[in-house]
Design brief:
It is a single chain. This protein is an alpha/beta fold. It has a single domain, classed as TIM Barrel (Alpha-Beta Barrel). Helices cover 38% and strands 18% of the residues. The strands form two sheets. Strands 1-4-5-8-9-10-11-12 form an eight-stranded parallel beta barrel, surrounded by nine helices. Strands 6-7 form a two-stranded antiparallel ribbon. Helix 3 packs parallel to helix 4, helix 4 packs across helix 5 and helix 9 packs antiparallel against helix 10. The chain is globular and about 70 Å long. 46% of the residues are buried. The structure holds ligand PBG. Ligand PBG binds next to helix 6.
Length: 322
């Protein structure tokens, strides 16, 4: 059926018909809001490269999380900025660490909010790497022990879900086993299964004060040139017991999201990372694009590519609109 018999524009003629034929939808149900938590009281420290995002002390974090919840956002993911850092990132698995305290506060003060924690060492290590450094290299298996301790400590504090973002080999299985061993079989595991070594994490590293102090993360995070490897990474994590698999970043990797969606049945998350957020904000501030439209278009594209849920710094703003 060709023109003039078939006219695609008939299905775009007005808002009602466009709503009826729309294939993908965006809802607050899709959002996970990343939040940064720091020591102190009454702290709401602006992150310059991420307008509208802050480092919150725990009292302020509770207010922000309650607001997100009231807007309908079901979940938050927490990142900690500890009082001090050391070689082994001990702040990450300290039962009285910043994240552990934050989880306990959220569980007491915000009703029925799903609390996810990022499980990684880079915010807690003095060298800023996501693992144990030995002779200038990141030691995989020694790191696993610490990640497992961190995940168990988060669970003990009351986290509902843990999300390892370190990209060490075997960490999903290792963490799952450690959780189960101490009776935390109910804790959900969302794996940063496919995480690329990306320039788009720049603003996050300002926010979390976590840039690597030497070298880069290319020996553990993935090469942006690789797509087949993404399938292998995801398959491994599923085999090791991941409940949800994630692709990160989102927008430059929509092809990867689509191929994981087609290949696996597991719920699929996408991390719309700090640099993706900052680019839209910066261009909008300059008046070069319509920030709100660009936000919604980006978010729907991530859903269209196959994501079930989106970790995004736009969560609050988008929830207000939806
Ligand atoms: C920790 C971690 C990072 C991000 C999430 N968890 C930084 C990194 O790997 O360097 C980045 C998130 C973002 O840019 O929004 N490993």
């Amino acid at each position: 059926m060709y023109f003039p018999v078939y006219r695609p524009r008939r299905l775009r003629a007005d808002a009602n018909i466009r709503r009826m034929v729309r294939e993908t939808s965006l809802s607050v149900d899709d959002f996970i809001a990343p939040l940064f938590v720091c020591p102190g009281r009454g702290v709401r420290h602006k992150i310059s490269s991420m307008p509208g995002n802050y480092q919150f002390s725990i009292d302020e974090l509770v207010l922000e999380a309650a607001e997100l919840k009231s807007l309908g956002v079901p979940a938050v993911i927490l990142f900690g900025i500890p009082e001090s850092k050391d070689e082994l990132g001990t702040g990450a698995y300290d039962d009285n660490g910043i994240i552990q305290q934050a989880i306990r506060a959220l569980k007491v003060e915000v009703n029925d909010l799903l609390v996810i924690t990022d499980v990684c060492l880079c915010e807690y290590t003095s060298h800023g790497h996501c693992g144990v450094v030995e002779d200038g290299r990141i030691d995989n298996d020694k790191t696993l022990e610490l990640l497992a301790k961190e995940a168990v400590s988060h669970a003990r504090a009351g986290a509902d879900m843990v999300a390892p973002s370190d990209m060490m080999d075997g960490r999903v299985g290792f963490i799952r086993e450690a959780l189960d061993e101490v009776g935390f079989d109910r804790i959900t595991l969302m794996s940063y299964a496919v995480k690329y070594a990306s320039a788009f994490y720049g603003p996050f590293r300002e926010a979390a004060e976590s840039p690597p102090q030497f070298g880069d993360r290319k020996s553990y995070q993935m090469d942006p040139a690789n797509a087949r490897e993404a399938l292998r990474e995801a398959a491994l994590d599923i085999e090791e017991g991941a409940d949800i698999i994630m692709v990160k970043p989102a927008l430059p990797y929509l092809d990867i999201l689509r191929s994981l969606r087609d290949e696996f049945d597991h719920p699929l998350a996408a991390y719309n990372v700090s640099g993706e957020f900052a680019m839209i904000k910066a261009a909008a501030q300059k008046g070069w694009i319509d920030g709100e439209q660009a936000m919604l278009e980006s978010l729907i594209s991530i859903k269209r590519a196959g994501a079930d849920m989106i970790l995004t710094y736009f969560a609050k703003e988008a929830a207000r609109i939806l």
